[in-house]
Amino acid sequence: MYVPRHFAPTDESVRQLLDRHGAADLITVTEDGLQATLLPFVHDPDAGEHGSLIGHMARNNDQWRLPTQGPALVIVRGPDAYVTPTWYPSKADHHRHVPTWNYLTAHVHGELLVHDDPAWVEDQVRRLTDKHEAGAVTPWSVDDAPAAYLQGQLRAIVGVELSITRVEAKFKLSQNRAQSDITGVVRGLRSRGRGEDHAMADAVDAHRPVETHRPVDGGRPRRRGDLADDGLPVRGGDFDPRDQ
How large is the average pLDDT for residues 53-82? Predict the structure, then answer.
């Protein structure tokens, strides 16, 4: 994954994304070509050396049966949103701006393990249910289902676990903009209020760059990420091949 310095998240931010995400794409390379399935996962940071992502898929899904060639990949996503340059106050000074797309993502690499074990699968389903029912006024419990019915449902799925070997992550959240433009993005997203706009506004606001020092010439404070990886200032809009 290409990650410009100003879009590189902290380890804690990545862990929060893995803990809180909904569903993610499991991708494997097999003798039949690429296989992919969208699955809800639970992040277990204490499993193995680097943690794991645990989930399940339908027994009728051939992906779990096909031997993987090399490591597997899970693509985890947070909120994403279109950003219009009309939200930048600096647009009044010049028109060197174009639209962009903000997003959070992590590419989680590891070894895929299959658990065709009813006890393991039931434990995973309970953990997944507890994660997503947390905070509900009347949360549903696995034990609400009749035992015989539950066992039939569990026989129809197979457990999968990605034993994590490395994680690459990118949080593209307008960090290469001036503080006033970042504020404009946050306000614009909250005002538009469609899709994941509010969640994205919170993410942009939470990941504002830290101001380091104010230049003696009275210009705006320099920030981490003011320079692209090639040492050149990031000018105009952030829809730039260097940032995608």
Answer: 97
